[in-house]
Amino acid sequence: MENLIKVGMADLKSSTHPGILTTLGLGSCVGVALYDSMSKVVGLAHVMLPSSLQARNNINEAKFADTAIVNLVQEMVKLGANRNKITAKLAGGAQMFAFTESSDMMRIGSRNVLAAKEKLEELKIPVIAEDTGGNYGRTIELFSNDGKLLIKTIGHGVKNI
Amino acid sequence: MPLNIDDLNNLQLDVLREIGNIGAGNAATALAKMLNKKVDMEVPKVKILEFKEVTEILGEPETPVIGILLRVTGDLTGDIMFILAYKAARVLVNILLGNPSDDDSEFSEMDLSALKEIGNILSGSYLSALSTLTNMKILPSIPDMAIDMAGAILSVPAIQFGKIGDTVLYIETEFTEGSTKVVGDFFLIPDLSSYEILLKALGVIS
Fold first, then answer.
1. Is A5's Cβ below 8 Å from some Cβ in B?
2. Could you tell me which residue, A75 or B91, shows the higher pLDDT?
3. B158 CB-near residues (< 8 Å, 6+ apart)
4. Across-strand partners of A34?
């Protein structure tokens, strides 16, 4: 396929049509997939942590749900997206290990999903689909053609949302 | 000031390398006892990588890997994770359980249990070296294991490191038994508050 762009951990990318944005092996991180169906501009952020406000080191804005989403929307608008038409899909936020002992490492996946949703709501971007949680990794591909988000796993099937 | 891995100086890196060396050396001895075979070890490499590269340390981000995670409590709190490629895990289990060396079938319950024990013993002996070196009480929890895409498993230590900086520090160890090579990576992840405690105990900062 044409124009496959990889998004690394704590990274974000956007593209005009035609383009496919992908991130491989999402675990507790969350993939925030944004799409404007009119301009067909896509954006994908691979978010590691919920909030830049709680971090001691917040230089890399793509790392945090709050700052990454704001930056991604700005990038997409520069590429011609209509800010008010952008919709969101979420994937990832798994809990890879089932520890019951209290550790702030745990539940980070669901906290990431929650933080992404809060920021999206604040920006009035509707979340139209999600495949989050569970205890398994996901590879995702976001297509500029129709905004489809393809999700691949090991042992938990393949789906489109 | 909290410690930032991105700013570690050479002395601090040397100390971490030495911990890795002693810890992995202990782990190799434990592995040799477990397998009842001579196990050699390369000098462990301390590596510092950006997040973008981290998911590729064991090959492609989608490569299946085994991650074994132990919570650490005591004078030092944090987590330790041992990770190795699916194929390397298969090799270890075959040696340990006396399976044919070309067995590459899916892991049975027995295999998984053996694997968890391997991770437990390796991580435990690593921690006990650290405990001796620093004179700190370090208590590992029972191990938890996950088998999934490398990127997904590695996101767990990466996120912890992400709270303090933009890089991940880990120790790559290579064990050799006969003609078989097994590469595994240790991630020692002290909680934020424990970094200073650790470096103080090692005499790196005052």
1. no
2. A75
3. A9, A48, B51, B54, B55, B168
4. A43, A88
- CA–CA distance, A23 with A26 (Å, rounded to integer): 7
User: Does residue A29 have an active-site annotation?
Assistant: yes
| Calpha distance A157→A148 (Å, rounded) | 17
Domain of residue A101, CATH code: 3.30.1330.200
- Cβ–Cβ below 8 Å for A97 and B146: yes
Q: Given the structure tokens 């041992």, which residue do they identify?
A: B82
Task: Provide the whole-model pTM.
Answer: 0.87
Would you state the structure tokens that stand for residue B170, as one six-digit string?
A: 């880990």
Residues spanned by the domain of A148: 4-160
Question: Could you tell me the domains of chain B?
Answer: 5-201 (3.40.1550.10)
Check residue B152 and give its pLDDT: 94
Within 10 A of B169 (CB to CB), how many other CB atoms are there?
Answer: 20
Q: Which two tokens stand for residue A57?
A: 């080191």
Strands (E), A4-109: 4-6, 11-15, 20-26, 30-36, 41-47, 87-92
